[in-house]
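Data availability (excerpt). The following record was deposited with the supplementary files.
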Amino acid sequence: MASGVPLSKKFLAELIGTFWLVFGGCGSAVLAAVFPYDSAAANPLGLGFLGVALAFGLSLLTMAYAIGHISGCHINPAVSFGLWAGGRFPSRELLPYIVAQVLGASLAGGALYGIASGRVGFALTGSNPLATNGFGAHSPGGYGLLPALTIEVLLSFIFLLVILGSTDRRAVVGFAGIPIGLSLVLIHLISIPVTNTSVNPARSTGVALWVGGEAIGQLWLFWLAPILGALLAGWVYRNLMEGEGS
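Predicted structure:
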């Protein structure tokens, strides 16, 4: 996958791809799911959980076909670690990919903050300002640290199994983006109430940097859990599920 492509082009592709994922996914939550909202009548007019989940899945799906042939469309440090653990990604490219992903996500977070700030009354308040991730008081459903850790590890594990299986040489060629994108939709439908859904350390970092405070203080979980789940999936697929010649 993406063999023979210069690292500089892969870096740019990962930066743009992660920007789009965060801008599309978090943007749907910040700009469309919250606003417009008639608080007096308690009548939400914007997107609900389903709309935000679809936005994340569609952002990934579109980028899979836009940059998959360039960088493999990781756009997620956990994916890079999982593919590395599965023997699909070289160690020397791990750091450049992660830097590109975090930079792209941070630029998207800044763009969203700048746009949202143009709305009268906008403030970084509430449990998940700028679509940040969190647990305890910063969990949309009030879930504590252990449930948040558990669901992020578990869903990251499944997400990487879908990616590894869909991109296996034995899988149908050309369709990997569809199950991968749909799996991200399902992941969000399950876990938005718990952590506001990360499974992607860059996505979490890109918005948390602009919010600060507890969003930064809880960020460690959204690096640890997705990467741990991804590493486990990479090991399991490589050692227990991968066939000869994969």
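Summary of structural features: Residues 35-43 have pLDDT under 50 and may be disordered.
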